[in-house]
């Protein structure tokens, strides 16, 4: 079966004040129906820009190269009108901040009914009924009353549920969740993840989960890509990633995560900071912060070497393995 | 919305101003019923008289009833005030939404044109427009409407700038909303508060400008009564019949005071930064 979403050699470039900044460079991945792909990396590594590129929501200053195939059609070739009929209908998005992602002046029910009326052509009444039904489905009590309330009357967790109800309204084939649990406290996080799993199971939705929380990845994802400074540095299934991380950056990420079972040891931070977009090093972008950097790392950019059946890694350490 | 209404009712200034404005509006709307005389009818035997049972506020130099003229004048003032503000608010909102949302050259173009309009003194620009179009009620409305467009454009544009990058706008785009929808259904409702305040305050300015134009003889044309025109005519008889100039002035002062205080109070209610407690 063809993947639901297939991104090939995607590069996103912004032209600003005479110079061009490449924020996402040569990124390729695919997500199948019912599968969850995690995209991990620290702030500014291009995770969100990748997802906004797929939705084509970046505006005219962004230039997209490569191909993004969604259910067989190249998204980059569609007109803005055709794109509008896909957004919220076949591809939906959940945003990070449930506090600001809802319009404060429209009642909840009306906001959920919006995509239903637009994409499915439901009447005002049908859409309102469906909205109440969707609210019940995402576990909101007193759905009829809540539908008439305004966003400020709800808690953060409730609002994120509303966002999910809104995203799921037209039963999209692909759900892009951009840090859906970052703004929520831990118990609510678990409930929201559980809800997303339920959605995935019932509708076979493909999910692209963008996060910097490795705990969320372990909980939700089948496969993971790790991004650093706009590139994919490691791609693996979730077991391999945690059991046998290959790229020094992935190793560093895992070390900087506290564990409940382990002894009280100091968390290890990765020294240094992500290089600025217009001051990228010539060789491997992680080389200046890498403890295992070799001479070649500072001169030549490594490729994404295949290190096992389920794992790829952009690091010179795996060159022989990759070629063999 | 219920908190808004409650805050509205609790504010005494708002209630008093609203009552004054309601009386004025009722008088203006029901002028033919309330006015004891036809505002243009002359009583040659009763010229420049003081208050009496027949003429409540006295008469002018042609023996016309001042009270009736003031009531009909309120009609003119309120009509010009409201319709010109409606006109400038409509265009100002449209320009402000476009300039703020699209930005770049569109923004520069619209705002520079507004800057040019802004550079003229209000009265001078209104005078020029009336001079070009000719005097009369509808041209007065048009002139005052055009003069006030820049204020509304700026108000709306700045509000749009603060709203357009909020996540709910992006989230609306992510559910497939097109530009007009985002502009008018997502962003516009979020700029109505400053717009409302600006509109209330602009009405008194518009009434003043109308009076000034009429005072200079370029606004409402005689024999139709307007406060500015009445004051202008009364100037010559100030010593003989002070009532002729006092009463229109009182009417105008009360109206403008009511609109200004109402506008301030509405701002206090709508703007969280001005809110006490």
Question: What would your notes on this structure say?
Answer:
The complex is a heterodimer of chains A (324) and B (277). By secondary structure, chain A is of the alpha/beta class. Chain A is built from twelve helices and twelve strands. In chain A, α3 packs across α4 and α6 (156-168) packs parallel to α7. Chain A is globular and about 65 Å long. The model of chain A has no long low-confidence stretch (mean pLDDT 87). Chain B has twelve helices and no strands. By secondary structure, chain B is mainly alpha-helical. The mean pLDDT of chain B is 88. In chain B, 72% of the residues lie in helices and 0% in strands.
Molecular shape of chain A: globular
Rg estimate of chain B, integer Å: 22 Å
User: CATH homologous superfamily name of chain B?
Assistant: MetI-like
Topology-level CATH name of chain B:
MetI-like fold
Strand content of chain B: under 5%
Q: Characterize the main sheet of chain A.
A: 8 strands, mixed
Helix content of chain A: 25-40%
| Total tally of structural domains of chain B | 1
Keywords, please?
heterodimer, A: 324 residues, alpha/beta, 8-stranded mixed sheet, 4-stranded antiparallel sheet, 12 helices, 12 strands, globular, B: 277 residues, mainly alpha, MetI-like fold
Quick summary:
Chain A is of the alpha/beta class and 324 residues long.
Q: Which helices and strands occur, and which strands form pairs?
A:
The complex is a heterodimer of chains A (324) and B (277).
Chain A: E1 5-16, E2 19-31, E3 36-40, H1 47-55, E4 62-70, E5 73-74, H2 80-86, E6 91-94, H3 108-120, H4 124-137, H5 143-147, H6 156-168, E7 174-178, H7 186-203, E8 206-211, H8 214-220, E9 223-228, E10 231-237, H9 238-243, H10 248-255, H11 295-299, E11 305-308, E12 311-313, H12 319-323
Parallel strand pairs in A: 3-8, 3-9, 6-7, 7-8
Antiparallel strand pairs in A: 1-2, 1-4, 4-5, 9-10, 10-12, 11-12
Helix pairs in contact in A: 3-4, 3-6, 4-6, 6-7
Chain B: H1 2-10, H2 12-29, H3 31-34, H4 66-102, H5 104-119, H6 122-133, H7 137-163, H8 167-174, H9 179-187, H10 192-215, H11 227-234, H12 243-270
Helix pairs in contact in B: 2-4, 2-12, 4-5, 4-7, 4-10, 4-12, 5-7, 6-7, 7-10, 8-9, 10-11, 10-12, 11-12
């Amino acid at each position: 079966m063809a993947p639901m979403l297939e991104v090939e050699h995607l590069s996103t470039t912004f032209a600003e004040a005479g110079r061009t900044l490449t924020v996402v460079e040569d990124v390729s991945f695919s997500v199948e129906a019912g599968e969850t792909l995690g995209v991990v990396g620290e702030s500014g590594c291009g995770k969100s820009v990748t997802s906004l590129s797929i939705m084509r929501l970046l505006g005219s200053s962004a230039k997209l190269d490569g191909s993004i195939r969604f259910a067989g059609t190249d998204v980059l070739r569609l007109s803005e009108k055709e794109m509008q009929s896909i957004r919220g209908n076949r591809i939906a998005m959940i945003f990070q901040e449930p506090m600001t992602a809802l319009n404060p002046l429209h009642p909840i029910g009306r906001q959920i009914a919006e995509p239903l009326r637009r994409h499915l052509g439901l009447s005002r009444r049908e859409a309102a009924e469906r909205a109440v039904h969707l609210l019940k489905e995402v576990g909101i009590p007193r759905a009829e009353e809540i539908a008439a309330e305004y966003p400020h009357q709800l808690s953060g967790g409730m609002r994120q549920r509303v966002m999910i109800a809104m995203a799921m309204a037209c039963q999209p084939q692909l759900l892009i969740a951009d840090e859906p649990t970052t703004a929520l406290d831990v118990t609510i996080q678990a409930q929201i993840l559980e809800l997303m799993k339920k959605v995935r199971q019932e509708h076979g939705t493909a999910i692209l989960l963008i996060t910097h929380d490795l705990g969320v990845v372990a909980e939700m994802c089948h496969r993971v890509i790790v991004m650093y400074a706009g590139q994919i540095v490691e791609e693996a299934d979730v077991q391999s990633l945690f059991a046998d991380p290959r790229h020094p950056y992935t190793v560093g990420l895992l070390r900087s995560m506290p564990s409940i079972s382990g002894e009280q040891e100091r968390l290890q931070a990765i020294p240094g900071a992500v290089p600025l977009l217009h001051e990228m090093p010539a060789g491997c972008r992680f080389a200046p912060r890498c403890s295992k950097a070799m001479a070649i790392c500072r001169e030549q950019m490594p490729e994404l070497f295949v290190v096992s059946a389920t794992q790829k890694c952009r690091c010179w350490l795996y060159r022989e393995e990759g070629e063999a | 919305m219920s908190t808004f209404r409650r805050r509205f009712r609790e504010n005494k200034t708002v209630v008093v101003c609203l009552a004054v404005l309601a009386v004025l509006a009722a008088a203006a709307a029901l002028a033919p019923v309330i006015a004891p005389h036809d505002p243009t009818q002359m009583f040659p035997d009763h010229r420049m008289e003081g208050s009496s049972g027949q003429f409540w506020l006295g008469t002018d130099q042609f023996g016309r009833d001042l009270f009736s003229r003031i009531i009909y004048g309120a009609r003119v003032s309120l009509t010009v005030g409201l319709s010109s503000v409606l006109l400038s608010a409509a265009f100002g909102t449209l320009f402000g939404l476009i300039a703020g949302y699209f930005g770049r050259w569109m923004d520069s173009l619209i705002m520079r044109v507004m800057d040019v309009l802004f550079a003229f003194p209000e009265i001078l620009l209104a005078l020029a427009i009336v001079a070009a179009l000719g005097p009369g009620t509808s041209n007065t409305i048009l002139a005052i409407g055009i003069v006030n467009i820049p204020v509304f454009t700026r108000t709306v544009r700045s509000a749009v700038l603060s709203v357009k990058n909020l996540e709910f706008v992006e989230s609306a785009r992510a559910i497939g909303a097109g530009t007009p929808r985002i502009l008018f259904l997502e962003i516009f409702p979020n700029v109505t508060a400053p717009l409302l305040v600006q509109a209330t305050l602009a009405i008194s300015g518009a009434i003043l400008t109308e009076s000034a134009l009429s005072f200079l003889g370029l606004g409402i044309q005689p024999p139709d009564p307007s406060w500015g025109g009445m004051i202008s005519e009364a100037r010559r008889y100030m010593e003989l019949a002070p009532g002729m100039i006092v009463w229109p002035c009182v009417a105008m002062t009360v109206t403008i005071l009511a609109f200004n205080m109402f506008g301030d109070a509405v701002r206090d209610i709508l703007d969280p930064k001005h809110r006490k407690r």
